[in-house]
Amino acid sequence: MASDSNAITVADILAKDGCKIQSLTVSEQHATLLVSHSNVIDNNEHMNIKENVESKTTCSLLKLTVVPFHKALLGGNPVMSPEDIEKGHLPERNMLQHNPQSSDEIISFLRKYEFVLKSESGAEYSYYCANPNADLIKSAGRFGAALEGKRDIDNEVTSASTEKESNLIADTASKFGSFDVELISPASAYQISRAMPGLGHVLIHETPELYNNVVEPYIRSVVDNGSLSWIANVVEVKKEKERLLVNNDNFVVNIDTKWRSHPPPLTTPREQWFNHPSTADLYCLAIVKRYDIACIRDLRGGHIPLLKQIQEEGLKAIEKVYGVGEDQIRAFVHYQPQFYHLHVHFTRLENEVGCAVERGHLISDVIQNLELDAEYYCKRTITYKLKKGTPLQSLIDQHQTEEGNSCAE
Length: 409
Hints:
- By secondary structure, the protein is an alpha+beta fold.
- The protein has 13 helices and 14 strands.
- A hairpin with a 4-residue loop joins strand 4 (113-120) and strand 5.
- Mean pLDDT is 82; it is low at 1-5, 41-55 and 143-161.
């Protein structure tokens, strides 16, 4: 995929002097890395993101889908100890000291891959396939040969002289094989806090008063800092054209980037998407083109026609393109959402990502609630789960502590 010539790439970041990496979360199949580096591009206007011009350091997030072989290496420079994570200590109070040697080892490992751009949102999100370069394949073959007793580790593997050795190199190279990478650059404090090691969660009972006093001002601050400007590129179809399913005056419907098993949109003819095996993981996203609806709290009776249109046209497009009937698709919104601009998720019933009862709200229920009371969502208490230590959870905790102290006086 061709990319904006000014776009920040993984290779750009890893090549910068002073680049350092710390491990946020690492599992058998995934790793999230926090990367600190000097500004790769001085002029960030192409991203429509407000930057602190005085800052010379940028933070980015790398989310890797990896194989277990790399777990120890990628987790070698953690931001928190397992003990602190288990106890639920806040990360800003218990950050482990940066280990330069471990950071250099992770960077050295990543530099042995070629990062091929698959898609990008036109702002901080971009998606790559990381393929091992020739040096890594050669070292993998040498390592595997040593393990098999076929060749001394110090000997240079210059060519596959026999079919057996060739197969060995291919086999060991597969252990260092390709993986998917999501790059978020620059990453906001909110995005970094979401990626931090899990410290547990708390259940929030958000009354209208709590929303008005704490949550709504927080949402405004997030929207006003410009971190959502990428949405314009999507709804105006300047980016993600290859993922577009619906485009009308009110909203777009795209293939969600979380649908990782979807056939490559750029290279796979659309007729091959119909009844594709990957539809078991179906995940599409509708984003409205108006900018005055941040979340479910902003919905009123006058928005019912818009919600019905999103549901009807989204389901119709999914059935036409993928052959999946509307009785197999759920349409819902999140509260709290991942970003504060109204969007609707479409997932197949087998795909339970994002469907937790304390977060998801079916569009059919939302429409019915607004038909019963046009101001339903500005009146009711909404219950949801928040990760401990995130900015919003900290603000709510502070507010409730101050209220408790005030009542005690």
